[in-house]
Amino acid sequence: MSAIISPSLLSADFANLEKDINMINQSQADWLHIDVMDGVFVPNISFGFPVLDSIKDKCQKPLDVHLMIVEPDKFITRFAEAGAAIINVHYEACTHLHRTIQLIKSTGAKAAVTLNPHTPVCLLEDIITEVDMVLLMSVNPGFGGQKFIANTTQKVRDLKALIASKNAHAIIEVDGGVNLETGKELVEAGADALVAGNFVFKSANPTETIAQLKALGNRQ
Ligand code: DX5
Ligand code: ZN
After folding, report:
1. Which portions of the chain are predicted below pLDDT 70?
2. Which residues are bridge partners to 134 per DSSP?
3. What is the pTM (predicted TM-score) of this model?
4. What pLDDT does residue 187 have?
5. Which residues surround ligand 2, an ion (CB under 5 A)?
6. Where are the beta strands (DSSP E) in 17-96?
7. Which of 31, 57, 96, 196 has the greatest number of CB atoms lying within 10 Å of its CB?
8. Interval between CA 148 and ligand 1 midpoint (Å)
9. 220 within a domain of the structure (yes/no)
């Protein structure tokens, strides 16, 4: 079974977003990953509601929204209205994560929790049965084009074991520095979904690059 591929819009051409959305629509991409940054949780600001509102009717793939923001509860309903099919909140940004997860589910969106590279998988022990997905950061969030942190592969294995031990159904997504080499390693370790920004959008043929990532999936 092949992995879910979620190209990251952060690396797209913002002067010509429609062209890149059309490319995504025609490609084998499963989702479109949307990185929202507030300049507080991460040292960068990306984009917000006007961009989502503009693309939600044009993009035929589910929007996989990654909130790198503090106090995400304030905006979850608004992100659902802006077309988010999956809402990822950071473990490190949520004081009352259980409440936040329930809030996401109440909008009808899938609920996902994201871990920074330094946050251990074992902290999810008491929430894993509640979430639809765990997003493991394989770079420090804030920027595209960074180097993959190798320890993530072991985190995928640890998370897979935690999910099995709790009889949970969460899937595993990985974000940051994904290319054909790191992607293969991650899929073999048990990753279900891969985010790729620079590797897709800065390649000579993004549609073909997405197809190559899609072909990685020889996982059992
Ligand atoms: C980083 C973002 C990523 C980023 C990945 O903070 O969460 O989604 O776009 O970009 P690449 O694939 O270039 O590392
Ligand atoms: Zn992301």
Report:
1. 218-220
2. 113, 172
3. 0.98
4. 97
5. 35, 66, 175
6. 32-37, 63-68, 84-90
7. 196
8. 10
9. no
- Tokens linked to 211: 């197809």
- How far, rounded to the nearest angstrom, does the alpha carbon of residue 162 sit from its chain's CA centroid? 20
pLDDT given at position 1: 77
Block residue for tokens 């330094």? 118
- The preferred substitution site among 5, 6, 9, 11 for testing ligand 1, maximizing ligand atoms within 8 Å of CB, is 11
126 tagged catalytic: no
Note the pLDDT of residue 218. Answer: 52
Helix (H, G, I), strand (E, B) or coil at 10: helix
**Cβ pair 200, 206 in contact under 8 A:** yes
- pLDDT 10s digits, 34-75: 999 999 999 999 999 999 999 999 999 999 999 999 999 999
What sign results for the dihedral spanned by CA atoms 133, 45, 15, 140?
negative
Which CATH number is 40's domain given? 3.20.20.70
Spot the catalytic one: 30, 35, 38, 132.
35
| Residue with tokens 């923001």, as numbered in its chain | 69
Q: Distance of alpha carbon 169 from its chain centroid, rounded?
A: 17
Joined tokens for residue 168:
């949970």
Instruction: Determine whether the shortest distance from the Cβ of 135 to ligand 1 is under 6 A.
Output: no
Structural domain containing residue 187:
4-215
What's the number of domains the chain is made of? 1
